Amino acid sequence: MKNIRSIVAILCCSTVYANDIEGTVQGGAYSHGHQDAFTDADHFKHKTQYTQDRDNLINSGKLSINRGGFQPQFIMPLRTTNNDPGFFGVSNYVDQDPVFNGNVEDFFCGARTYDLSNYNHKGIDFFTWPYAWDKMDNDEVEVVAAADGVITTKLDGNFDRNCDFSDPNWNAVYVTYNDGSYSYYGHLKNGSLTSKQEGASVVAGEYLGVVGSSGSSTGPHLHFETYDLDGNLIEPYSGQCNRMNNDSWWLDQEAYRESKVNKLASHDVEPDELSSCPTNIDMPNYQDDFDPGDTVYLAAYYRDQELNQLSSYYLLKPDGSEFGSAWHHNSPDTYNASYWYITRQLPNDAEPGAWTFRVNYNLNTYEHVFYVGDLIFESAFEN
Ligand SMILES: [Zn+2]
């Protein structure tokens, strides 16, 4: 309906200039990102399935293992179909502390992992952010092979909108690499798996599926779990507290905290519907077309925002000049995922055209453009 805007909105109206209304700044943490919970039995089931499938492929000549071959160097096993600066974060690494039940340590000597009474988290949880269900519904985040390998196991057909830990059946692809090491790519969207069959080769970056929330999972995320040829668990990130392997398995290892803005967006309602369980439907309310006089909600969605990091928010008119005053904000905490938004009321005689929401944060500048006025009218006028 915003697209059907009136010509009057541009041409009418007095020069009364509405005050820049700075609403109460809101935002904060978005949980700590989605995660899973496995039992020892789940883990045993995954491993048994993998071993059985691998041995079948070897016996049928579809898979050969190059023992002593080069260890894979992983690329990020995710990619996105949109143009946002970021689209995921990390909620959990591999738990390095062998003691169960609340004794956790990650490779960086932090506590960004979890364990249970009989299970230490054995993978990395990459959660999609923001609006993970919306991303899933639009197939926006794809899981890709982290290295060249052979599809060894495909599990599909399981419900993929789980919000809790009650359903152990995930959709997943298991891939064996050249040297016999292997990874599980789990929690995929139902029906999204590659059409390639078990025994088929994939190259690094090749499509495996879409991030979903099948199996024991609180929301859309990828659980990425890796073993060497002999079944020893690997934490691909190298760090002082990695007790499993000394070297990084990443081609280009990310920092422990990659502080960045994943997305800037303009909305026509307050962006406060971020936690969507148990309905499992996101209402992002993205809006890039506004009329003069409208209220605009300008949000930045962060990954790994750290305590006291400064953000500066600006709103620029079509001529590049600043509208209202900038907003400067020091992060009150450290988050895996966080968001902050400001509210601005456009004046009744707001200049038509492209307005820019700009955020300076952690040495980077992010911009999002939205439009004010009658675009249909403008394009018709140009014709
Ligand atoms: Zn996990």
What does this molecule look like?
With 383 residues, the protein is mainly β. It folds into 2 domains: 7-30 and 259-382, Immunoglobulin-like (Sandwich), CATH 2.60.40; 40-234, Distorted Sandwich (Glucose Permease (Domain IIA)), CATH 2.70.70. The protein is built from 4 helices and 20 strands. It has helices at residues 7-11, 40-59, 132-137, 375-382; strands spanning 26-29, 78-80, 88-92, 124-128, 141-144, 149-155, 172-177, 182-186, 201-202, 207-210, 221-227, 233-234, 260-267, 289-290, 295-303, 310-316, 327-330, 337-345, 353-361, 364-372. β19 (353-361) and β20 form a beta hairpin. It is elongated. The two termini are 23 Å apart. It binds zinc ion (ZN). The site of zinc ion (ZN) has 7 residues, from loops.
Spatial extent as radius of gyration: 24 Å
Q: Main sheet, how many strands, which sense, barrel? A: 8 strands, antiparallel
The share of residues in helices is 10-25%
Write down the CATH topology of the largest domain.
Glucose Permease (Domain IIA)
Number of helices: 4
Count up the domains.
2
Per the principal axes of the C-alpha atoms, what is the gross shape?
Answer: elongated
Multimerization state: single chain
Task: Using the 3D structure, state the CATH architecture of the largest domain.
Answer: Distorted Sandwich
Within CATH, the superfamily of the largest domain carries the name Glucose Permease (Domain IIA)
Summarize the structure.
The protein has 383 residues and is mainly beta. It has 2 domains: 7-30 and 259-382, Macroglobulin (MG2) domain (Immunoglobulin-like); 40-234, Distorted Sandwich (Glucose Permease (Domain IIA)). The chain has helices spanning 7-11, 40-59, 132-137, 375-382, and strands at residues 26-29, 78-80, 88-92, 124-128, 141-144, 149-155, 172-177, 182-186, 201-202, 207-210, 221-227, 233-234, 260-267, 289-290, 295-303, 310-316, 327-330, 337-345, 353-361, 364-372.
